[in-house]
Amino acid sequence: MGRGVTGLAPACLRASQLELFSPGAPGWPFGDFHALPGRRLCGRPLQIRQVARPGAGPEAAEGRGAGLSSLIMDPECSQLLPALCSVLADPRQPVTDDTCLEKLLDWFKTITEAGSSLLLLQENPCLLGLLCHVLKPQDLSPRVLAFSLRLAGMLAAQEDCFQYLQQGELLPRLFGEAGPLGGAAWTAPSVRSGWIQGLRSLAHHPSALCFLADCGAVDTIFSLQGDSSLFVASAAGQLLVHVLGLSLQGPAEGHPGLQTGDWPVCAQKIVSHIEESLRSAATPQITQALNVLTTTFGHCHNPWTQVLWVRLSPLVARLLEKDPVPAAHSLVDLLLSVARSPVLSSSSCGLWETLAQTLSHLSPTQAGPLALGILKLQECPQALRAQAFAVLLQPLTCVLEATAQAPGLLDSWDGTGGASVTVDTLLASKAACVGLLCRTLAHLELLQPLPQRPSPWPQAPLLGATVTILRLCSGSATPTSDAGGHLCAFLVGCVRVQRAALDFLGTLSRGTGPRELVTQVFAVLLEYLTSPDSSPTVLKKAFQATFRWLQSSPETPGCSDLDPHAQLFLRELLPVLPKRLCSPCWEVRDSGLEFLTQMIGRWGGQAGFRRALLASEVPELTEQLLRDPESYVRASAVAAMGQLSSQGLRVTPASPEHPGGQQKSLLAELLHILSTDSEGFPRRAVMHVFTQWLRDGHADVAADTERFVARVLQVASQDLDWEVRAQGLELALVFLEQTLGRPSSHCPYAVTPPVAAPPGPLAQALRPLCRVQLFEFAFRALFDCDRPVAQKSCDLLLFLRAQTASYSGPQGSGSVPEVASVEAALQRWQAGDQGQPLGYLEPEVVVAVLRSMDLEGLRGALAESSDRVEKSPQSLLQDMLATVGALGEDEADCY
Amino acid sequence: MKLYCLSGHPTLPCNVLKFKSTTIMLDCGLDMTSTLNFLPLPLVQSPRLSNLPGWSLKDGNAFLDKTELIDLSTVDVILISNYHCMMALPYITEHTGFTGTVYATEPTVQIGRLLMEELVNFIERVPKAQSASLWKNKDIQRLLPSPLKDAVEVSTWRRCYTMQEVNSALSKIQLVGYSQKIELFGAVQVTPLSSGYALGSSNWIIQSHYEKVSYVSGSSLLTTHPQPMDQASLKNSDVLVLTGLTQIPTANPDGMVGEFCSNLALTVRNGGNVLVPCYPSGVIYDLLECLYQYIDSAGLSNIPFYFISPVANSSLEFSQIFAEWLCHNKQTKVYLPEPPFPHAELIQTNKLKHYPSLHGDFSSDFRQPCVVFTGHPSLRFGDVVHFMELWGKSSLNTVIFTEPDFSYLEALAPYQPLAMKCIYCPIDTRLNFIQVSKLLKEVQPLHVVCPEQYTQPPPAQSHRMDLMIDCQPPAMSYRRAEVLALPFKRRYEKIEIMPELADSLVPMEIKPGISLATVSAVLHTKDNKHVLQPPPRPTQPTGGKKRKRASDDIPDCKVLKPLLSGSIPVEQFVQALEKHGFSDVKVEDTAKGHIVLLQEAETLIQIEEDSTHIICDNDEMLRVRLRDLVLKFLQKF
C-alpha cells in the first residue's frame, strides 16, 4: 500500500484516530492534529522535567520557566537505568551493539549539557555504581569499559561533579596508572580511545589540568600519538591541542610574553615534546608534531599562538633543509593553517619567507596544494603570490614547451627556475605525470572563479595548454621534442587527464580568448565528440564543456543568436549528435540527450539554431528514444522532447495537412509513459515536462487546460513513486496560480494576507479547480504515506485557504451535510481506506472543509522527524534491556 | 638456434626456427594485399569495371615464394597458431617437397578449411576466359601502369590453389589440444596454449630440457568469445617471438563496435542498406552478438540481417559445437543447455538469414533496407563485389569496413565514384602495445624477438612513442628474408643413467650436501636421447681380428687414477715434513698460494689452489715420498 517510508503500528494508528476525530465534535479538533497514518506519532516523546539547580549559569535558564534552571531525566528512564547499569556491569551479558552505547552517551551528553551532572549522579546512584564496578578486576568487555571512561569524563566536565568524583578517588583509578592503563584491557583500541575521549570531555576546568599533571596523563597522550590505531592516534593529537589550549587559557591570555618560560608547566611540557618531535629524524614523529600544531593554529587564534609560532618556526624552517622534506603534506597543512590565522599572518614572524622557501624546496606534486592555498589567502605579499602561481603553472609551461609552443604569459610567471624539476616529475613515470597534471588542472579550476585569483589571469596560455593536453591525450598533437614524445606516450588515451582537462576547459569558458584559440577549443571539443574512442564519461564532460563554450561565445549584435563561428561549429556538431544518440552505450545516449535539452533550452528560439536542428535527424531520433530500453535514457528523451515540442521543433511529417495532429500524439505518448512506464525516472520527467508546459502555456495544453490537468492529476495520484505525486502537486499549484492569480509573496507557499476577493467571482474561480478534481488529489496527498508529499499538499492547501480567507459565501447554508460527508470520507482516507473517491465538490464545501482543518497543526506535526519516537531515550533503554533479556516481563515468564 | 624470417607482414607471419636439429615452421600466412592491384571479379560481367582507365584485368592471387632463403622440404613440422595464419598451407605442403607434419587445433583446421573453401569458391566460380603471365616479365612489368609496375617480386605471385590441393594439405594436419605436449624426434617438445584471439587460436611453446622458446602470435586479452589467453605458461622463456599484434593500435575495439552499431542504425533508419565486407568467421560472431543486444534497443527488430557466404551455414554451426574452445561464459551455456552464441536465436527468429550465394533463395527472400555480411573484405572477389555495384550509387547506403587486413581506400578504388557512405571501423582484438608491455612485465622473457615494424612508431605517426614495443633488453627485430641468430647458447643436455649403472656408483660426500662419484660408462645417443650404459666387461683376448673389431665399438677402459679433492693446510704439511725428517723447511707466501722450500734437498713444493707441483732435481724417490705426503692431506675418490 505504499507505506515504504515509515512503519506503522496498528495500535498506534487507532490511538491517533481517537485523538484526532472525537465523535460528535462540530468541526475539526483544533490543535490536536498531530498524528497521521503512516507515521508513528503515538509514542511518548522525550519528556524533560525542569527542576531548579543551584548555581546553574544564566544560559541554562534561558528560555525555560522561571525558577526551573536545570533538566534531568524523566522518571521512566530513571527507573530503567539501574537495570541497565547492572546489565552493563555484568560480563555474562555482553552488549553486542556499539551503536546503543553511542546513543546512550549522546543522551547523557544532552542531559549533562543542559543540567547538573552532580544532581544526575546523586539521583541515579547506579551510575556511580557502574563506574566503581568497572574498576574491579574482571572480564569486562572493552566496550563497556570504554563507555564508562567516556561517561566519567563527561560527568567530570563540570567542576563540582569533578570534585565529587575526586572525593571517592574514582577518577585517578579510572584514568591513572592503576586503571585500565596498565591492564590487559588497554590492548583494545576502543579502551584507549575511550580513555582519550573521557579525558577530552573532562578537561574543561583548571582542576582538570592539575589532575592531568598528577596522574601523568600527558606522557601517556604523547605515546598514544603514535598508536597503531589511526583513530586513537588522531584523538590523542587533538587531546593534546585541547590540553594546551586549556592550560594557556587562564594565565597566558592577555600576557603574550615572548618567553614561553612563563607558561604553565603542562603547556611547557607539551611544547617541549613538540620541539623534540620536530627535531626527530623519524618522519612519523615529525608528522605528529606538525598535525598538533596545524590543529592548534587552525582552531585557536589567541595571542599565545603567536608566541608559540615564534618559538617553533625556526624548527619548522629547519625541516626544509632536509632532502627530501619530511612529512611534506603535514608541513603544507601547517604553513597554510598559520597563514590563515589572523593572529599569525599579520605579524612579522618570517612566515612569508618560510612559505617562499617551502615552495621552492618541495617537489612539484607537493608544492601544488601549498601554492593553491597561498593564492587563496586574502592577504599575502604579491611576490609570494607570483611565486605560488608560477609553481602552479609550471607543469602547463612544460607541456607547452614540450610541444614547441611559446609558453606565452605562463613564462612570465615562472620566476623560480624550478621547471627542470617539474619536467623530471612529468617524465618520471606515467603515474607521476598523470597525477601532477590532474592535480594542476584541478587546482587551477578551483582558483579560476575566485576574486583573489592572480591578475592578469593568463587566459590565453592556459587555454593553449589545456587544448594541447587534450590533443596529447587523443594522440593528435605532434610533439617535436623527446620530452613531448614521452608526454604523448604517457597521456594517450588517459581518461583521468581527459576528464580533468575538459572540466578545466569548461571553467575557462568564463573568460575570453583570442579568436584562433577559441577556434582551437571548438576543434578539440569536436574531435572528442566525434572520436569513437572517447569513453562515456569523457564524452559527457566534452558535452558539458561544449555547452559552456557555446554559452560564452559572443552573441550577434541585434539578435541573441549564436555568433557565426559558433554556428559553423554547430553545423559540424549536429551530424555527430545522431551517431551519439544511436550509441550502444546508454550513458552516451543519455549525455547526448542532456546536451540537446540544454541546447534547445538556450537557443531553441534562434533561427540559425532551429534551421540546423531541423535539418538534422536529431528530433526524429530523440522521439525514438522515448522507447529506449534504459529508463534514464527514456527520462532524458522525455525532457528533450518536452523542450523540442515547446519550441515547436518537433518534426511532424504530416504537419502541413494536420497541423497539431502529431503534436497531440506527443501529449498522448507522454501520458502513456506516465501511466505505464515501469520505472520512476521517465514518469518524473513527464511530470516535469507537463508542469513546464502548463506554466509556459504550451499550445496542446492551452487547447483544453482543464482536461489536461484533470487527466494528469488522475494518473499522478495513482503513481507509486512519491516524487511523481509531489510533482503532481507542483503542477496543481501552477494551475491554481493560473486560476486564482499569483500570490503576492515570492514564496508560493507563504501564507499571504487575505486578498479582498469578492465572493461571487471566487466561487467562480474555484469551480475549475473543482472540475479537475484538484482537491481530491490534494486531500489524498495530505494523507500520503510519504512525508514530503503530505508536506507539499499541506502547503498547497494552506495557500489555497489564504486565498479564500476573505470568501464569505454561503458558509454553512445548506451545505453542512455535504461537508460532513466529505469529512467522514477524509477520516476513512486517513485510516488508510482511500478506495472511495470524493466525487465532485462544490467550491463552498471545499472552503468549509479547508477552514475546519487544522492545517497549521498538521504542518507542525509533519515537520517533525518521523523516527523521533524510536529515537527517544526510553525506547533506547528498553531496546538495550530487551536485547539482553533483562526486562521484568521476561523474568515473569520464567515462572 | 636460428630464426629464418620469410614474411614481411607482421600479422601474417611465416618463420622457420632451427632448434636442436629440428626445423620448425611457425605459421604460414598468406599476404593477399597484392590482390588490391587487380580488378574485382564480378559475378556478372561488368562493362564499367572492365573499362576502368588505369586498371588492367590480370589473374590470380599473390603469394610470396619463400624457397630462396631455406629449402622448405627440410621443414620437419609446421605449427599453426590460428586459421588466418594457415592460408598459405597448400602452397607449402603441395609444391615444395614438404614431408613433415602440421600441427593445429581442431577449430583452427575446421575454420581454416572454411576460409580456404570460400576463397577457392569465390575465385573458381568466375572463371576467366584468358589468363596472362607474360606481364610478370620484368621488362614488360615496368611498362605497366602504377601500382603494378612498382610491385616487387611479382614473379613470386601465384594462382589460387584448388580444392584438391586444400584437401591434400589439410590431410597432413595432426590435431592437437591446448597444453598437449608433443615430442618432436625426442629433441624438443611443443605445446599449444590458448591465445584468446579466435576459436582454437594458439600460442606455442617449444622447449627442450634446458631451453624454452615461446611463440606468441595473434593473441588477445579482451573478453570475446574464445577461451582466454594462457599467460602463465609463457613465463621463464629464454626467447619470446612476438608477432600478430593489432594492426590498428589506435582504434579501441569497444569504440569501434559502438561506431559500427550507431552507423548501422543511422543508415537503416533512413531506409538505407548496410554492407559489411567480412570473413565468414571470427569478429562476425562478436558483431552478431552485439547486434543481438542492440537491435531491440535501437528499434531495428524488423530489419533483416543476411549472411552470404559459401560456408555461412557451416561457420555459424561450427561456432556452436566447439564449446570446449570457448570462453567460460559460453561454455556454461552449453550445460543449460543453450547454444553458446546468440546468433542461434537470431536465426530461429528469422532476424538473421544465411545463404551460400546471391543465387537461389536469397533473391526471393531479399528485402530492403537490410544489413548484409559477406566476403571478401578486399572487395576484389566474392558476393561483396555485386553489392558494391548494386548499392554504390545511393547515398542512403553504407559500407562498413570491420576487417583490418586491407586498406579500405585501396579496396574502394575501383568503385569510385561512389555515392554510398563509407565507414571504417576496423575491429582488431589482438594485443595492443599497452597490453604487450603488461604481458612482457608479467612473463619476463630473457629476450624478445619481433618484426621490425613493432620496434618503431608507425611511419604515419612517428611521434607516437607509445605505439612500439618498449622492453628491456630492447627487442631484437627481424625483417623479411633475414636470418636471425637467437641470442642464447645451449649449455646443458640431459643424459639418463641406466639403473644398473646407477647402482654401481659410490657417491662420496665432499661437502655437506654435495656428493660426487666417478662414472665410467658408454654414452648411447639415439633419437636425440642420451643414455649412459654400463661399460662392457673386458673381453678375454681371443682372435686378433675379433678383438680389433670389438675395440672399434667399445672404447678402452683403462684403470683410472683416483680424483683428488681438498686443500693442503700448510702448517700441518710443514709439521708432517719435519716429522719425516726434513729440516730447514721454509715457507714463502705467493700471490696464488705458498712455496715450501726444502733447502737441504734443493726442492720446491708449489702449493696453489688447484695444483701442487713438486720440483726436485731428478730424485724420483724423494718426489714419490713427498707426493705421498701431499696425498695424505687430500681426499681421493
From TrEMBL, chain B:
Keywords: Cytoplasm, Nucleus. The keyword Membrane does not apply. It holds the Pfam family IntS9_C. Residues 284-412 form the Beta-Casp domain. One of its GO terms (biological process) is snRNA 3'-end processing. Signal peptide: none annotated. Its main location: cytoplasm. The keyword Cytoplasm applies. Component of the integrator complex, a multiprotein complex that terminates RNA polymerase II (Pol II) transcription in the promoter-proximal region of genes. PANTHER family: INTEGRATOR COMPLEX SUBUNIT 9. This is Integrator complex subunit 9. It comes from Panthera leo (Lion). The gene is INTS9.
